[in-house]
Amino acid sequence: MSSPIGKSRSLVAFLQQLRHLGQPPRPVTSAACAPPGPREVPLCPLMEPGEAQDAAALPGPTNWPLLGSLPEILWKGGLKKQHDTLAEYHRKYGKIFRMKLGSFDSVHLGSPCLLEALYRTESAYPQRLEIKPWKAYRDYRKEGYGLLILEGEDWQRVRSAFQKKLMKPVEIMKLDNKINEVLADFMGRIDELCDERGHIEDLYSYLNKWSFESICLVLYEKRFGLLQKDAGDEALNFIIAIKTMMSTFGRMMVTPVELHKSLNTKVWQAHTLAWDTIFKSVKSCVDNRLDKHSEQPSADFLCDIYHHNQLSKKELYAAVTELQLAAVETTANSLMWVLYNLSRNPHVQQKLLKEIWSVLPGNQMPRAEDLRNMPYLKACLKESMRLTPSVPFTTRTLDKATVLGEYTLPKGTVLMLNTQVLGSNEENFKDSSQFRPERWLQEKKKIHPFAHLPFGVGKRMCIGRRLAELQLHLALCWIVRKYDIVATDNEPVQMLHLGILVPSRELPIAFRQR
């Protein structure tokens, strides 16, 4: 896969001209940051602030004037392959290193020990990386902030309002009827979409439609008809807008969003138009629910959250918007990857099928309570999220000076928690390139608890985690019981970073009815 710039002569000449100006790669300076060796002890030894080195001593790649390490990132495959480059940097510079991309300065963590140390020093209101393009749009249109942007007490207040519904297992289990309703329609749609070989062209788009229908039924008690042959424009435009927003905001994280906004660049225009479409759709759906259940708000998912908590309407709009867009992309992508992994490992799929049959004889509909008896199913999803995660990293911004490893990091330091690196590291997972769900059942006690964090960690863990897992577990029950998921070729499929990690080509899988 070629980079946006490509390995052109002009880039080579450009690098040669700048090489004498750039700060050379900073070397590994301590044993704590050495490349992976033997398995780490469960608890990281902590250093006192006076014993730790200054952050300026952190190792890392060459820092070019104005550009930071961006030329090298582009040379190695571009932003689409940055997750692979980060893994390479961790092998070269160790478990903690510093890197600049244009104006974006960050410290990267690639060790479960360091993540655990960070977690144990977490404050009451952990801060995430400031998503400046999102904030710029909200301020521009005078919209509210959601959970991915809010900080401090406002973040805690809004999260608490949603947490009561989304993080309690007993509340999530009540949603299985809605999820199953959409899955039943999706099964019928698969039959219609398969060609004579069982292949579905543009499978990812249909998984997005399934995910969209599911989250909308949960949030709004509304079906958009995306799984019908003639889908409405509103939902299709929403999905397109999400993809546009995701592809444009990344560019404005590297180059200042203020510059894009002041010059009214095409990237800024596309980003703004995409958010306009997203907010318009969400506001309409939320307002309909609030109007319909104004007299009995407890009877509705959203109305209950709004009327029994101190939320403004703008906060409700923003929080629901961010929840919906996260659910559509990441849930669909996670299902696509687990189907791919099952197709490449038929012995795993057969073992999973036997477990499903043992719990759900005949055509019995899977329920949330049935999943308690399906440990192998849960292990399959977990292993897929380790091997082919949708999200390669999460972020934190330090709200106080903190010692991590052998370095003192100042307040305001942006941390990149490279969770994809953790999952692919042989130090954390033996035979890490193999899809082996058994590791989560037979070797679980040997796995560091901070080596696998697909939904983040700590108080800012993904609030939609339990809902996403329920959707995915039930989907696997339906699909694997009805279809043999077959690999149509054995050529490798790479991961590309496009906001989330997506396949580099159409996945070579087919659905063959059992």
Folded structure, characterized:
It is globular and about 65 Å long. Helix content is 49%, strand content 9%. α8 (176-193) crosses α20 (465-482) and α15 (313-344) runs parallel beside α20. It has helices at 9-18, 70-75, 82-93, 112-120, 132-141, 152-166, 169-173, 176-193, 203-220, 233-249, 251-254, 257-263, 266-292, 301-307, 313-344, 346-359, 375-387, 419-423, 439-442, 465-482; strands at 53-54, 96-101, 104-109, 394-397, 402-404, 407-409, 414-417, 483-487, 495-498, 500-503, 509-513. The protein has 20 helices and 11 strands. The protein is α+β, with helices and mostly antiparallel strands. It has one domain (9-513): Cytochrome P450 (Cytochrome p450), CATH 1.10.630.
CATH topology: Cytochrome p450
Oligomer: single chain
CATH architecture: Orthogonal Bundle
Order of strands across the biggest sheet? 2-3-7-4
CATH C-level category: Mainly Alpha
Number of domain units: 1
In short:
The protein is α+β, with helices and mostly antiparallel strands.
From the structure above, extract its key features.
11 strands, Cytochrome p450
List the helices and strands and how they pair.
Layout: H1 9-18, E1 53-54, H2 70-75, H3 82-93, E2 96-101, E3 104-109, H4 112-120, H5 132-141, H6 152-166, H7 169-173, H8 176-193, H9 203-220, H10 233-249, H11 251-254, H12 257-263, H13 266-292, H14 301-307, H15 313-344, H16 346-359, H17 375-387, E4 394-397, E5 402-404, E6 407-409, E7 414-417, H18 419-423, H19 439-442, H20 465-482, E8 483-487, E9 495-498, E10 500-503, E11 509-513
Helix pairs in contact: 8-9, 8-20, 9-15, 10-13, 13-15, 15-17, 15-20
